[in-house]
Write a sequence for this structure.
C-alpha cells in the first residue's frame, strides 16, 4: 500500500485526537499519529457496540411485551438484525486498528510521517476557510450535522485539492476510497457529490443545486 494512502488514513483518524496548533503537531512522531488513529478506531468500536447492545435490549423488550403480535415480532427481528450488522462493523473496526501499525511498517515511514503531518498541519491551519468552502457546497445539510468521520474526510480532501496541489480527480477518488472503509454504506456517494461541487466551485463552474439535492444520498447524521 502506498505511503501517501497510509498517511491519508492516519491523518483522517488522528485529526480529532491530536493538538490543533500546527507548531505542536510538528513535534509529533509517527508512533504518536498511529496511536491517535488507533484510539479513534477504538472509540468508534465502543460506540458501535453500545448501540448494538441497545438494539438487542430493545428487541428483547419488544418480544417480552407481546410475543403474539406479528408487528412486534417483526420489529424485534429488525432490531436484532441491526445489532448484528453493528457488531460486524465493530469487528471490522478492530481489524482496521490492528492493520494500521503493520501497514506503516511496510511503507517508507519517513514519507508517511511527513505527509500525514503536512495534511494535519495544513488542514488545521486553514480549517475556517475549508469549513466555509464545504458549507457553501453542501446541499440542504450543515457540516456540523455530518458524522465526524465524514467531516474529516471532506476536510482532508479539500486540503489536498486547494492547498497541496493534488489533482482534484485523485483527491476525490482517494476520499471516496477511504470513505468506503470508514464511512456509512451511502457515505462515499455523498462525499463524492460534495467534493465534485467543491471542485467545480474552485474552478468557477456553477452547480445545479436543485438537481443535486434531489439525487444526493442521505449522509450519516451525528
Amino acid at each position: 500500500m502506498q505511503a501517501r494512502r497510509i498517511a491519508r488514513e492516519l491523518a483522517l483518524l488522528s485529526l480529532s485526537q491530536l493538538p490543533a496548533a500546527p507548531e505542536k503537531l510538528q513535534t509529533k512522531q509517527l508512533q504518536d499519529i498511529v496511536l491517535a488513529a488507533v484510539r479513534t478506531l477504538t472509540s468508534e468500536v465502543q460506540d458501535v457496540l453500545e448501540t448494538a447492545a441497545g438494539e438487542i435490549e430493545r428487541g428483547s423488550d419488544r418480544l417480552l411485551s407481546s410475543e403474539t403480535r406479528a408487528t412486534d415480532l417483526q420489529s424485534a427481528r429488525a432490531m436484532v438484525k441491526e445489532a448484528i450488522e453493528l457488531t460486524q462493523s465493530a469487528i471490522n473496526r478492530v481489524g482496521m486498528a490492528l492493520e494500521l501499525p503493520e501497514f506503516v511498517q511496510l511503507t517508507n515511514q519517513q514519507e508517511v510521517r511527513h505527509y500525514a503531518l503536512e495534511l494535519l498541519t495544513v488542514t488545521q491551519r486553514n480549517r475556517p476557510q475549508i469549513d466555509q468552502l464545504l458549507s457553501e457546497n453542501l446541499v440542504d445539510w450543515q457540516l456540523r450535522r455530518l458524522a465526524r468521520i465524514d467531516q474529516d474526510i471532506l476536510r482532508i480532501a479539500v486540503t489536498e485539492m486547494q492547498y497541496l496541489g493534488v489533482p482534484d480527480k485523485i483527491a476525490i477518488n482517494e476520499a471516496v476510497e477511504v470513505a468506503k472503509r470508514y464511512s456509512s454504506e451511502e457515505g462515499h456517494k455523498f462525499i463524492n457529490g460534495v467534493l465534485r461541487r467543491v471542485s467545480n466551485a474552485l474552478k468557477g463552474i456553477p452547480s445545479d443545486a436543485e438537481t443535486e439535492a434531489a439525487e444526493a444520498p442521505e449522509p450519516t447524521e451525528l
